Amino acid sequence: MSAVGSSVQTTVPTPAAEVDGRAAGRRRGPTLTAGRGGFWFVLPFLVVYALFTLVPIVYGLFLSFFDTSLVGTTSNFVGLENYARLIGDGEVWRTLGITLLFTVLSTIPLVLLSLVMALLVHTGTRGQWFWRFAYFAPFLLPVATVTLIWQWLFQGDFGLLNGLLGLVGLPDVGWLSDPDWGLWSVVILTVWWTVGFNFLLYLAALQGIPQNVYEAAAIDGAGGWRRLVSITLPLLKVTTGLVLTLQVLASLKLFDQAYILYVGSGGPGGVAAPILQYVYDTGFVNYRLGYASAISYMFFALIIIVSLAQAWISSRRRRS
Amino acid sequence: MATATTGRDIARPDRTTQRGRKSREGVSLAQRGSLVSRTAIATALTVLAALWLAPLAWALLTSLKREADTTTVPLEVVPEAGFTLEAYTRVLGNDNIITWFINSTVVTVVVTVLTLALATTAAYGFSRTRFRGRNFLFALTIAGIMVPPQILIVPLYRQVTAMGLADTYAGIILPQLVVPAMVFILKKFFDGIPAELEEAARVDGAGPFRIFWQIVMPLSRSIVAAVGIFVFIGAWNNFLWPFIIISDPDLMTLPVGLVQVRSSFGVQYAQVMASALLAGLPLIIIFMLFQRQIVRGVATTGLGGT
Amino acid sequence: MTLDPVRDRALSRRSFLRASAVGAGALGATSLAGCGSVAPGGTTPLAYWNFFTGGDGARMVDLINSYRAEAPDVDVTATTLEWGSPYYTKLAMAVEGGRGPDLATLHASRLETFGLNLVDSWDLAELEARGITLDQFPEPVVERVTLDGELKALPLDTHPLVLFYNTRICEEAGLLAPDGSLAPIQGAEAFLDAGRRAAEVTGANGIAYGTNDALASFMLFWSVFNQLGGEMSFPEGGPAVVDREAMVGAMDFIATMCDGTIASKTQDGAGAPAAFASEQAGFLLIGPWEVATAQTAGIPFSMTQFPALFGDTAYCRADSHSLVLPTQRSTEPEVRAKAYDMAVSLLRNSLSWAEGGHIPALSEVAESPEYLALDPQSNYRGAAQVAAFDPAVYFAGSGSTFMSRAGQSLQGVGTGALTPDQGADDLIAWMDDQLALGSPL
To answer: What interface predicted TM-score (ipTM) does this complex get?
Structure first.
């Protein structure tokens, strides 16, 4: 989940649905007349925001130009040395590669599976509450709970997964010890844990499709499958864009579950060490805070580029 | 291509809550489809649900076994010796878990209350009042949405340590209070509240704070609840920051303590599963109580994050 | 600053809680349960951190409890954190912030990596007052924990690479001496041959060895490297000065051993003891702590010192669980005195600790008839005199990046993905990179 505060992405704000009854049809929008007291309303938030977001952003950038150590007392200005070193540091690129690979491997099932789940539940099959609970409940669990459970399921000798493989006569898989499986285990765990969130986004989108669209299609004699392909899926395009963006950004920030699953080791042969773990290891395990800051900022730039690219694409889509 | 155009035109409803007839009760493939397709759908739903619940079920089963029965080969679903609550008694008899539970509760409740207080007031200020620099400050706030908190761990660690707040509740709580996205969501909501309601109150001589508290907040109960539930979930589950800033085992939150502190007696799977499930229990209960709000919260705001 | 840091912290926590209780609902009162470190009237609180779990964990609890019985006026809070970098990282962060425990366990090999300025030196006079002097410890261990003439860590034990052998399999393979113990093995060829003969009996491997495990492969590598006379030194800024010939030689030995018969090319850290426990191998190369695994399995086995494969001295990679005094923002003499008492108590009672396979560091225990009677745990006690510790540099030691990175090179060599030459180049290049980064300490 999130690191400091919830890392939150917004989609669309709720309009004032509940005042509909009272003020239907009336003029809406800010009055801008409450006047002077306004600044005092935003001040408390801004103070905390400045102290715990803006200041660290600037301070972190500052640190990235120093060779500050976690335990040392001296700290020297090294200019761009940390950034120069980063370019030649194979581990930065290797862990970044793992992060990108994880993003691809996890995003595809997380989007497709959540869509399938939402379409299935949206058929109205009895037990709505139960389906929603089953698919969404894991998302509510703390990452520690999720990872401890999966560590147990993945366990080589007594774990459920290898036990089931054994029942059908398949050989054991080294879920947590085989370099070929190390990252897949993190993907499986993550899909199980977070698919419910995307599922709810899709479900809400499906429930927002007006009935009359389908009625018109039914008159044309479109069957269930055809309705799905030619009406429902095209209508979900915007939601898919949203789900995809949120998922990519979330997957890029992989750390917690990979760290806990492998107790900080990065997995067999280091195949499951994402870049944020390299930041953590560099800064806190190996005491190099300055260099860790520089790596953070390189990664930050990447996140910003992804966010801006998404914003640009969606605004272009809206304009056309 | 014709369908694509249509799609775009009516794509809006999937992004905003449209009042009016929805497909919720209406179109339902299951009701209209053939028996075959209905069976297929029900089967697929059941298989997926079984896959999704199996890990939890296995964890629960493990937690109800004696330690010696957890590592049998081949797997035993029901151990010969039967089930026992031993693991739970052991776990709950352990001071650490109780301490972490209290820490998590304190931190989560304080974070939720303070975040809501800061975000609602700021959103109201940005939405309904005018002051110099308002647009700039709002833009600055919105820009914060793009900052992943994980990026800030190094400078925040140094800063919070320098402030003398490492290993304190304040050190865990304060950095979690900044959630610009919540301000954005609430502001958009406040923007939709009709001006007349406030004007009437102002005529009656109410000041901005009274208007906020007596008019705007009561109208916004559901969005505030949705935001509050999400902040609560995020704070309860937060791992990285408390993990970094706390080294005193007496001050760890549940997720951090579970991961960091080990039993001297080695890995005891029944107890590990029992404590992992106990850590998740409050949120499962909250989901059972507030399923509608949570589902709506996700739907309308798309918040949360992994 | 003469404020009591413990009390100070509890107070600030309490007052913070009181302040937050307004917003949080009446949670303040219950939260005080979290303040475990507040001393009840007249007793001294003493915080001790360690990373022992399993059998070692249970034995450590016994040791702590016997100190508690000796000193009822001391309130010992023992905390067990996840071993490896999580433990060391948390400990360093706590100490750096002035919030470290009063006594902590550290691998002797981690001293430089951890940061010498994070631990206070032991006062030899204080130790002597409690009957402890340095001549009571094995020389290589004392040498490793003494830096610039200061005793930085008090050794509790030595745990070397040892050779486990299955007596039934070895008997069948004709490898036992008349007295039923393993016939002495002299030289690499004899060792490999013993492995081959054991493999014939098991039909699987001769030697269980964690090819893919950083710790197991590093232990073997470092032992052989030392037996080949290898040395390394690390000038500031690099490059590393390495006896490349010895390094290639040690890697060559590993490559030869991991031929798929003598030892597996793919076994991992958990697989090796498991294979030995299920009699799929006649030997096991790992630290002595696996004695519990073998005993639990109920197989006929014994243990012996890792033999001299090259040269005359049976150097073996070893480390020592030792005790350190983390620096405090303000050291309270009373608490510090209790930390000395507790450390000495742990050392004196380390006979039960030895059951876990560790060689007691303190001579009065290591030479006691009770310890000498422990079989097989005392069979390899001579290893403490030929212990080879990891290089003393800021990135090495048990559970360090050096060990895990060396593990990668060694795994490559073991699986045949890298030739010994390539393996050596790979590891040396990494060390040069590390040195070029400069020490963060």
So the answer is: 0.85
